[in-house]
Design goal:
With 75 residues, the chain is mostly helical. It has 2 helices and no strands. Pfam families: DUF6167.
Amino acid sequence: MKGFFWFSAGAAAASYVIFRGRRIYREYVPEPLRRQIAAHGDDAALDLGRFTATFRTAMAEREAELRRELNLPEN
């Protein structure tokens, strides 16, 4: 029961901070700066997608290499 209480308290605190932060962000950050932040966020999302794709490809290649070297059957 204690764990559920602390989980709920943490979720409530996180929700409050997120919603309050969004309101403060909209009120105090100028529009040109918000557009610039959004553009950088989009670029970061694209870079993360590229990294993930490269990582998965490299991981699959390494797994295939190890399976060949250790004579393990393919799944």
